[in-house]
From TrEMBL:
It is found in: Cytoplasm; Endoplasmic reticulum membrane; Golgi apparatus, cis-Golgi network membrane; Nucleus. Residues 54-213 form the Svf1-like N-terminal domain. Keywords: Cytoplasm, Endoplasmic reticulum, Golgi apparatus, Lipid transport, Membrane, Nucleus, Transport. This is Ceramide-binding protein SVF1. InterPro entries: AttH-like_dom_sf (IPR023374), Ceramide-binding_SVF1 (IPR051385), Svf1-like_C (IPR033394), Svf1-like_N (IPR013931). It comes from Aspergillus nanangensis.
Length: 378
């Protein structure tokens, strides 16, 4: 939310011409030759590009006690002249009987280690261990939000294709923008977040995503869908975005199905569908009410894999007006000229949903918990 806000504010009023679908090289094209690549330790290095981009490392927690949490480091560079870093966290009130616990704090004296694998700032460290399979996230930046978490990868990480990146631009050799995602879909989590009111026990299961958006957010995507689904045996993840008409309203979808120690399937031949929607009067966007996610491809041993997750989203957890804190005149310019009106809808149904997985002739159905987002930008 913060990087959308900052980059939109800095470039309000910009709108791209229609380049057409030939100006985007989707990661799906790479996936036709190499559906996915397992992550090695040094694939997790911070990029810290010197041009306009936003880089995030996001950690999602589904604790055994039902607590749902997101913590994140945001490193952003605006036009190559202004670099900022923030730590954000959100402890969701999944019962709907109170406010979410949201914090976003700027970081001071931030820096990377020599290997670019770990990140530090005053009263904060996010470190990757020597084996490259465990992140430690510690923050005392905000005394009302003391974070102490350990994420240990329990299934292989991956990127789709060779490098997980979609490239934008009319010159294939010199792209002017990019979008990439790297996943640790299934992790074991230990630790706590301590606020002034209580200490939240966050032992359970988690997901880690490293994302780099190397262009302005409203130029890269008009809409997003994201799902993180965890069952006792399986994890399903999908990240889908649709470009603005300037890039042919191209749909880019990356995702996979994993279980402990194994990637069952990963690739770009997936789909996210809003089966039912209702116009939300607060945002004037079609808020999804029920969804269907489908993963389809081949396993490593060339078996057909199909997985499906379908059901009602129930009451939304939150609706975020990304531009709410941007000055009114910038908001009006961004909306009227750049066409940007970003809202994020977040969901975690109270009722368990069922993931149906078919691997060759074997069929498995398992219930689990879901966190999903539907984002509308322009």
């Amino acid at each position: 939310m913060n990087w959308l806000k900052s980059t939109l504010a800095s470039v309000a009023g910009t709108q791209e011409p229609i380049y057409g679908p030939e100006a985007i090289r989707s990661v799906g094209q790479q996936a036709q030759e190499s559906p996915y690549t397992e992550l090695a330790k040094y694939d997790l290095r911070w990029r810290a590009h010197q041009y306009t981009n936003v880089e995030t490392k996001t950690f999602y927690v589904m604790a055994d006690n039902g607590t749902l949490v997101m913590v994140q480091i945001i490193y952003s560079n605006i036009v190559g002249i202004h670099t900022t870093a923030q730590v954000t966290s959100k402890i969701f009130n999944v019962n709907g009987d109170g406010a979410h616990k949201w914090n976003s704090d700027p970081l001071s004296n931030f820096m990377f280690d020599e290997s670019m694998l770990s990140f530090g700032a005053d009263n904060l460290s996010v470190t990757l261990n020597e084996d490259g399979d465990t992140y430690s996230f510690k923050s005392a930046v905000n005394e009302d939000n003391l974070i102490n978490l350990t994420f240990k990868r329990s299934a292989p990480g991956f990127v789709i294709g060779k490098d997980g990146t979609t490239y934008f631009g009319t010159d294939a050799e010199n792209p002017w923008g990019s979008m990439s995602h790297a996943f640790w879909p299934r992790c074991s989590v230990e630790g706590t977040i301590t606020t002034k009111e209580k200490t939240f026990d966050l032992n359970g299961r988690g997901m880690f995503i490293h994302a780099v958006q190397g262009m302005k957010p409203h130029h890269a995507a008009a809409r997003w869908n994201f799902v993180n689904f965890q069952t006792p045996t399986y994890t399903a993840v999908m990240m889908e975005y649709t470009t603005p008409p300037s890039y042919g309203s191209t749909v880019v979808n990356v995702g996979g199905i994993v279980k402990d120690g194994e990637i069952v399937y990963a690739g770009a031949t997936n789909s996210a569908t809003h089966l039912e929607s209702a116009q939300d009067p607060g945002s004037d966007w079609p808020e999804p009410k029920s969804v269907k996610f489908v993963w389809e491809g081949k396993s490593k041993d060339d078996k057909d894999v199909q997985a499906e997750l379908q059901g009602s989203l129930g009451n939304r957890l939150d609706r975020i007006d990304v531009m709410a804190e941007v000055p009114g005149f910038i908001k009006s310019i961004a909306g009227s000229i750049a066409g940007a009106r970003p809202y994020i809808f977040q969901f975690s149904p109270q009722d368990k949903l069922a993931l149906k997985v078919k691997i060759g002739d074997e069929e498995i159905t398992e219930e689990g918990f879901m966190f999903s987002e539907a984002t509308f930008i322009s």
